TrEMBL record, chain A:
Name of a matching Pfam family: OB_MalK
Domain of life: Bacteria
Molecular-function GO terms, alphabetical: ATP binding
Name this protein carries in UniProt: Multiple sugar transport system ATP-binding protein
Residues of the ABC transporter domain: 4-235
SUPFAM superfamilies: MOP-like, P-loop containing nucleoside triphosphate hydrolases
Organismal lineage: Bacteria, Bacillati, Actinomycetota, Actinomycetes, Pseudonocardiales
Keyword Ligase among UniProt keywords: no
Keywords, sorted A to Z: ATP-binding, Cell membrane, Membrane, Nucleotide-binding, Sugar transport, Translocase, Transport
UniProtKB/TrEMBL annotation, chain B:
Main subcellular location: membrane
Localisation per UniProt entry: Cell membrane
Family per record: Belongs to the binding-protein-dependent transport system permease family.
Keyword Transmembrane applies: yes
PROSITE patterns the UniProt entry points to: ABC_TM1
Keywords from the UniProt entry: Cell membrane, Membrane, Sugar transport, Transmembrane, Transmembrane helix, Transport
Protein name as it appears in the record: Multiple sugar transport system permease protein
Length: 393, 277
């Protein structure tokens, strides 16, 4: 059990690459914290610095209040689960899990007991005498977890531990990892590039981009109050819709038509000194099929009409995709987001809107639909630097 | 479908048999010659009509062959040991580290491997004579190491590149010192590569004739391949073919033993299962 503090931690690789820059994170004892961000944003580097596998160029790493920058990994009492699992192929499952205990000169009986315990928790009992080469991906993953938990370390570090599993197993293992962490109550730092994993697993999530921390907060806080376009676009699936807009006369002129500013939004935008040109962000679930709403609710929001391009019925909801006339939102931030998350759904004909409608909606592919949204739920961003203009203090 | 598959199987079996026969007939012929009596030596029979151990008895009663065998074993083992140890260190550095001059090192070792050995015989002969190395064990061990090293470095670095180095990190996280990580995780995984290389280098040294014949002059350092050629003129045997064959069979045995002994250690794909699926 341990509190881990990263104090202005910076990593510059010998080739000059600045991988992590000025990262400040305080990880509470027993907390499950997620580092998330697109590939190459410095997550693994950060984790390896906590582990002691990479030197810290600048700043301080403290575990339980003690500076550990100079300590070798073995003296930090931290266990790690690697993306590749890194099991010792010449040792059986039992020997793999016993390895850290044998290095610590634990007596044979205790080793046996702890390995059996871990095997029971991870459902590996009948595989103890097999070699890793003969195990399935999921079993290997569990052996890697087992090797980490047997010695009761101060903290667990996990670097994309589930990314080599197939989708179904990944969801399954996600739940077991969460349960295991809760059961053991050990401080855990978990790295992933998958925002769903980040949202579902962590007590708190750290969103990183290009070696910089963008935002730290609970999954809900990141979702409700993203501090910039990057976090807004990265968190949530399907991602937030972005539209260019001009702010004038107490209303927003958007490709969806004029949208009145609610009092709340107006106050926030004024406090943030919003420029004239802004980017509007709307989450897919804040839209609804106008037919399904009563008049008072309809009057409260904004309704526009558009043709359904694609309709995906999930049973519980319907995802309707619209193309709207007008400009696509442009911002350097959005460009990097698209490049880094690899979304290539750039259309020339205008911005695409994704909406999540009730299953009861009568939307049809190719047909026009009246779509309603709640203007109080929208986010405003500065196209210049991507910062939010609707941040609640 | 089934017939075309069994047809393919039959074709492969045929090809295998042809290759095996092609490779083994000369060997078996020598074995056969080594068991023939002097009278039946030239009878052109594949299977000896009269079996005899006399040829084997003969070579082991002369000092010449035993001394050559001792030279061969001693020189090949020492050269192999040194070449493998040096090669392991060099290959480890090439596979693991980025250091200035790495490409030059690789290039130079490639150059040595391509260098025609024949063209070095005369200069080596002169040099060893003036250095007093001519007709000594080191006189053969040194050039063997030189020419075995590129072979060792290439094979070993190919093996080393296969080792997932994340295992070393994992061992460190599990509480191992760098020495423990090497001894308990990396060394066991590198072993098959080291043994394979040792076999290749040993065979190279064991089989060499060119240096052995040019850089020796007496039985004090003459190895078996060179000594064999001296059986010919020896007055002790009227027709040396039988004894030469017996000697050839005898010197093949250590190689077969060597390979069989290490074969179990060269388990292909030992590292499978370390990473991913
Ligand atoms: N050993 C290294 N030497 C130089 N640059 C590196 C090294 N490892 C990673 N980097 C660079 O540091 C950045 C962050 O890498 P990494 O932490 O692995 O990202 P992530 O795990 O988020 O995908 C990348 O731009 C990568 O190219
Ligand atoms: Mg990574």
């Amino acid at each position: 059990m341990a509190e881990i503090v990263l104090d202005k931690v910076t990593k510059r690789y010998p080739d000059g690459a600045l991988a992590v820059s000025d990262v400040d994170i305080t990880i509470a004892d027993g907390e499950f914290i997620i580092l998330v961000g697109p590939s190459g944003c410095g997550k693994s580097t950060t984790l390896n610095m906590i582990a002691g596998l990479e030197d810290i160029t600048d700043g301080e790493l403290r575990i339980d209040g003690q500076r550990v920058n100079e300590r070798a990994p073995k003296d930090r009492d931290i266990a790690m689960v690697f993306q590749s699992y890194a099991l010792y192929p010449h040792m059986s499952v039992r020997e793999n899990m016993a390895f850290p205990l044998r290095l610590a000169h634990v007596d044979k009986e205790t080793i046996n007991r702890k390995v059996e315990d871990a095997a029971r928790i991870l459902d590996l009992g009948q595989h103890l005498d097999r070699k890793p080469g003969n195990l399935s991906g999921g079993q290997r993953q569990r052996v890697a977890m087992g090797r980490a938990i047997v010695r009761d370390p101060k903290a667990f570090l996990m670097d994309e531990p589930l990314s080599n599993l197939d989708a179904k197993l990944r969801v399954q293992m996600r739940t077991s990892v969460a349960k295991l962490q809760r059961r053991l109550g050990t401080t855990t730092v978990y790295v992933t590039h998958d925002q769903t994993e980040a949202m579902t697993l962590g007590d708190r999530v750290v969103v990183m981009r290009g070696g910089l921390v963008q935002q730290i907060g609970s999954p809900q806080a990141l979702y409700d109050q993203p501090v910039n376009l990057f976090v807004a676009g990265f968190i949530g699936s399907p991602s937030m819709n972005f539209l260019p807009a001009t702010l004038a006369d107490g209303q927003l002129n958007t490709p969806l038509g004029a949208v009145p500013l609610t009092d709340r939004i107006r106050r926030l935008a004024e406090a943030a000194k919003a420029p004239r040109e802004v980017i509007v962000g709307l989450r897919p679930e804040h839209f609804e099929d106008a037919e399904l709403l009563d008049d008072t609710e309809r009057a409260r929001g904004v309704t526009f009409t558009a043709t359904v391009e694609v309709l995906e019925s999930m049973g519980s909801d319907k995802f309707a995709y619209f193309l709207v006339e007008g400009e696509t939102a442009t911002s350097a931030e959005l460009d990097t987001l698209a490049a880094e998350t690899g979304s290539t759904e750039m259309t020339d004909s205008g911005p695409q809107i994704v909406t999540r409608l009730s299953a009861a909606s009568a939307a049809h592919e190719g047909a026009e639909l009246d779509v309603w949204f709640d203007p109080d739920k929208l986010h405003l961003f500065d196209p210049g630097d991507g910062r939010t203009l609707t941040h609640v203090k | 479908m089934a017939t075309s598959q069994s047809g393919a199987k039959a074709r492969w079996a045929l090809i295998d048999v042809v290759v095996l026969v092609y490779a083994l007939v000369p060997v078996l012929w020598i074995v056969s010659l080594s068991f023939k009596t002097k009278e039946t030596l030239a009878d052109k029979n594949f299977i000896p009509r009269e079996w005899t151990w006399q040829n084997y008895a003969d070579i082991f009663t002369t000092n010449q062959f035993l001394r050559a065998l001792l030279n061969s074993v001693g020189i090949a083992v020492i050269a192999t040991l040194i070449a493998v140890v040096l090669g392991t260190m060099a290959a480890y550095a090439i596979a693991r580290l980025d250091f200035p001059g790495k490409r030059v090192l690789v290039g130079v070792s490639l150059l040595i491997a391509m260098f025609p050995q024949v063209s070095l015989v005369t200069p080596l002969f002169e040099m060893e004579r003036s250095l007093g190395l001519f007709d000594t064990w080191p006189g053969l061990i040194l050039p063997y190491i030189t020419f075995a090293l590129p072979l060792a470095i290439y094979t070993l670095s190919a093996f080393f590149r296969e080792i997932p180095w994340e295992l070393e990190k994992a061992a460190k996280m599990d509480g191992a010192t760098p020495a423990q990580a090497f001894r308990r995780v990396i060394a066991p995984l590198a072993a098959p590569g080291v043994f394979t290389t040792a076999i290749l280098v040993f065979i190279f040294c064991w089989n060499d004739f060119l240096f052995a014949i040019s850089l020796t002059s007496t039985t004090s350092s003459r190895t078996v391949p060179a000594a064999l050629s001296f059986f010919q003129g020896s007055s002790q045997f009227e027709d040396p073919t039988g004894t030469v064959s017996a000697a050839a069979v005898v010197i093949t045995v250590p190689i077969i033993l060597f390979v069989l002994f290490f074969q179990r250690r060269i388990v292909a794909g030992l590292t499978s299962g370390a990473v991913k699926g």
